[in-house]
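Bench notes, afternoon.
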Amino acid sequence: MLIESRPGSDPELAALVTAQQRELREIDGGLDGQVTVVHDDARYLVGVVDGRAVACGAIQALDIDTAEVKRMYVRPAYRGRGISRQMLVALEELAFQAGHTVLRLETGTYLSAAIGLYRSSGYAQIPVYGEYVGNPYSVCFEKLLPVSV
């Protein structure tokens, strides 16, 4: 798989984010009613297999030290191949290169595969933060990144 940086305006990225949001609405029945948009200030990565964009993820700075993983998604036909783990590692590297020392993320309590990925990748559960406070379906994680010298 090729992982490449893409701008938020990229049409293949937009299609992946739309598919992610559609899938989340189907899973949670639209319980939260929130519409998600592509953030202009996030840094996006897209995973490409055989010329097709099949996965995405982003980091968005929360402050000088902390970034948040956003929009992790792999098309259903490509799951079970380790693509999400490769994307997460690439996002961690992107955050590290940007000087972040902490990486946070939020996922749904009903997304057991995602929770398993994050836990097995060294993320520890933390209290919900920011816009996720008060959402009963949110679970948040955090990982400390190495500090460059």
